[in-house]
Amino acid sequence: MKLSVPVTGRAAVATAVTVATLFTTGSIAGAAPAPDRAAAAPAATIAAAPDLPVANVKAHLAQFQSIATANGGNRAHGRAGYLASLNYVKGKLDAAGFTTTVQSFTSGGRTGYNLIADWPGGDTNQVVMAGSHLDSVSSGAGINDNGSGSAAVLEAALAVSRTNYQPTKHLRFAWWGAEELGLVGSRYYVNNLSAANRARISGYLNFDMIGSPNPGYFVYDDNPVIEQTFKDYFTGIGVPTEIETEGDGRSDHAPFKSAGVPVGGLFTGASRTKTAAQVAKWGGTSGQAFDRCYHSSCDTTSNINDTALDRNGDALAYAVWELSE
Fold first, then answer.
1. 3-state SS, one letter per residue, for the chain
2. What is the distance between the alpha carbons of residues 64 and 273, in angstroms, rounded to a whole number?
3. Catalytic (active site) residue 244
4. Is the Cβ–Cβ distance between 325 and 168 less than 8 Å?
5. What are the Cα distances from residue 16, in Å, to 145, 153, 220, 255, 281?
6. Most buried by CB count within 10 Å: which residue of 5, 194, 268, 278?
7. Is the pTM of this model over 0.90?
8. pLDDT at residue 248, as a whole number
9. 179, 227, 244, 325: which is the annotated catalytic residue?
10. pLDDT interval class at 247 (50, 70, 90)
11. Angle at 247 between CA 242 and CA 251, to 5 degrees
12. Would you place residue 3 in the very low, low, confident or very high pLDDT band (cuts 50, 70, 90)?
């Protein structure tokens, strides 16, 4: 999650260039009206969503940690660790049968990249997207912020392939570059969609920090259908939620929301302090930040709460299946 500082005056994004070894497909589409489901699906439909093995998600996090360790301790925009992270995710998706596209941009004099992965099939006039930012800050490996979201989105995409899921709507997954510099990658993607392609996106789901070590369970309240979908999942497992406010407008859902795309997402907390009332709900330590290693060198694989990562990963899969069927 990016720092809460003004974006004005940051380096502008330059011309997009598609990486030469890839091809850009016409499926990089945009948005549409809010998801057409007014209520939660019946239990039998909900059961179709797979359980994401937390061990698999953690294996991706271990890879991000190894990449950071081998590349100056971070996976930041314009650095070798970021590109290695993108190549790791892309390799998994290519092997799983996704159509992947790399979109490049420049910010701060460095080249950044977005990775877009389309699952073949589904109505491309109704696109459900799930995404996360793949970059870290330069001071650390960024395993909770935001390896956690990136790993869970990757594992959800791989679950689509493993189950050969064939939804009614078209599925697209995304990993954004340069979020930490002011949502640069996601803003670039949204700004370069045609109005027609933006109108094809039924919803964008964002996952930024979902494994905080002293976690809360926060749900975005930007779109009532998407919000209720996540709440239904957590109600089903007996975990209370709160409305997300700490990161409001500070992550990659913001450009989509500004463009009129319905958005939602999950968050487990950053630098705010966990209250006694929240400890009564969720456990953990009162008077301590949700993530004491936020934007720090200690944001490593030891900075993850496995239970939160597991629950949020399963909620992610639930929402993808529920909103795309």
1. CCCCCCCCCCCCCCCCEECCCCCCCCCCCCCCCCCCCCCCCCHHHHCCCCCCCHHHHHHHHHHHHHHHHHCCCCCECCCHHHHHHHHHHHHHHHHCCCEEEEEEEEECCEEEEEEEEECCCCEEEEEEEEEEECCECCCCCCHHHHHHHHHHHHHHHHHHHHCCCCCCEEEEEEEECCHHHCCHHHHHHHHCCCHHHHCCEEEEEEECCCCCCCCCCEECCCCHHHHHHHHHHHHHCCCCCEECCCCCCCCCHHHHHHCCCCEEEEECCCCCECCHHHHHHHCCCCCCECCCCCCCCCCCHHHCCHHHHHHHHHHHHHHHHHHHC
2. 27
3. no
4. yes
5. 26, 24, 30, 17, 46
6. 268
7. no
8. 84
9. 179
10. confident
11. 125
12. low
Q: Within 10 Å of residue 38's Cβ, how many Cβ atoms?
A: 9
